[in-house]
Each structure stands twice: as structure tokens, then as C-alpha cells.
Design a protein that fits this description.
Belongs to the tetraspanin (TM4SF) family. It is built from seven helices and no strands. It has helices at about 1-45, 45-50, 55-85, 90-110, 115-130, 145, 185-229. The relative contact order is 0.10.
Length: about 230
């Protein structure tokens, strides 16, 4: 029953992310279309002024607007296609690549000379997410560090311990280390999913602000134009 509920929740999250990205791409595409339209309008309606301007900055600016708007529209269109087609194979490949890369990093690079930054990152990952190993604590059995004499008999790094003390990694009992189902990769994927929601929401907010700015700019331009008559 719990597995069914989890699968249902994952499906709901996928649908939510899909439509969130769809809405963001819509605003993104509209923003690009607006920018491109302003550039074209500038060249068409104000082309008579270009011949008498000493500098080509005005024309170049208009062409930049058209190029930038077109690029944004193409990017937004590709985003629509990717969302509509639901390229699950690409997403699955990305998730699998993440798992393989993390497992390889744990087994080959942890506590290796010249890889201090990786060691620190893994230690922090395990402590922050309260996990041990990529998929489970058993992943550390194949680690270069654990198999070396430098481990001093540890079966897992000390950062796997619930309370980190010197050589606490010698004992891998659940009362001593974090034994989380799915390991660190599950926690990391959830972390990325949560932040994707935040980034999507921020992106929509920025797109809305840009759209409002465009509307206010058009209203101001219209008002100035009316006052000039």
C-alpha cells in the first residue's frame, strides 16, 4: 500500500513539474515574442530616422532585440516540445548517470591524495542528508579508501556516523551509522526536485515581472506619444 501511495505521489509530482515548466515556457516564449516585436517595430516604424542618425547604435540595438527575442522564442519552443513529448528516457538516463557518478566518486575518489575537496563534499553530503553510501552503506565495501590501510579497519567513513568521533566508522550497526533506504542518492534526488520547484517558481515570477515591465513600458510610451500631440 505504501509503495502504491509513493508511486502515486511521484506521478503527481511529475505532472506538477510538467505543467509548472509548461507555464514557465509560455511566459518565456511570450517574453521573447514581445522583445522581437519591439525590435521589428523599431526598424519598421522608425526606419526613416536611421538615415539621419550619426551613429548606428539605434539600428544595432534593434537588431539585437530581434536576435535575442528570436533566440528566446526558439528556446521556449524547444522547451514546449520536450515537455509535450515527455522525454522520460532522457530523464531516466540523467538519474542513472547521477547514481553511477556518485557511486564511482565514493569508491574511487574518497580520501585519495589530491581529492580533498571531493572527500569534504562527500562527508558533508552524508552528514547533511543523514545518509551513508550512494545506494546503501554497502557501497563503501568496494571503496579504495576502505580497502586501504589508511582506513585503520573502518568499514565506512566516520561521516556515516550519527555522532562523528574518531574511528567511529569501524562499526556499521544501524544504531551507530545512518542506514537510509535508497542511500544518499535518494536524498540528493529529492533535494534537487525540491529546488527545481523553487527555481521554476522564481522563473515564473521573473517572467511575470518582465511581462508587467513590458506592459508598463508600452503604456508609458503611449502616454508620452499622446502628450506630444
Amino acid at each position: 500500500m505504501s509503495h502504491f501511495n509513493k508511486a502515486e505521489q511521484d506521478d503527481w509530482m511529475t505532472v506538477y513539474l510538467k505543467y509548472l515548466l509548461f507555464v514557465f515556457n509560455f511566459f518565456f516564449w511570450v517574453g521573447g515574442a514581445a522583445v522581437m516585436a519591439v525590435g521589428i517595430w523599431t526598424l519598421v516604424e522608425k526606419s526613416d530616422y536611421l538615415n539621419i542618425l550619426a551613429s548606428s547604435t539605434f539600428a544595432v540595438s534593434a537588431y539585437i532585440l530581434i536576435f535575442a527575442g528570436g533566440l528566446v522564442m526558439i528556446t521556449g519552443f524547444l522547451g514546449f516540445c520536450a515537455i509535450i513529448r515527455e522525454q522520460r528516457s532522457c530523464l531516466s538516463a540523467l538519474s542513472e548517470e547521477l547514481k553511477q557518478h556518485l557511486t564511482q566518486t565514493l569508491t574511487e575518489n574518497y580520501a585519495v591524495p589530491g581529492k580533498t575537496h571531493i572527500t569534504h563534499s562527500i562527508d558533508r553530503l552524508q552528514q547533511d542528508f543523514k545518509c551513508c553510501g550512494s545506494n546503501s552503506s554497502a557501497d563503501w565495501q568496494h571503496s579504495v579508501y576502505i580497502l586501504s590501510v589508511e582506513s585503520s579497519g573502518r568499514v565506512v567513513p566516520d561521516s556515516c556516523c550519527k555522532t562523528v568521533t574518531f574511528k567511529c566508522g569501524k562499526r556499521d550497526h544501524p544504531s551507530n551509522i545512518y542506514k537510509v533506504e535508497g542511500g544518499c542518492i535518494t536524498k540528493l534526488e529529492q533535494f534537487l526536485a525540491d529546488h527545481l520547484l523553487i527555481m521554476g517558481a522564481v522563473g515564473i515570477g521573473v517572467a511575470c515581472l518582465q511581462s508587467c515591465g513590458m506592459i508598463f513600458t508600452c503604456c508609458l510610451h503611449r502616454r508620452i506619444k499622446m502628450d506630444s500631440y
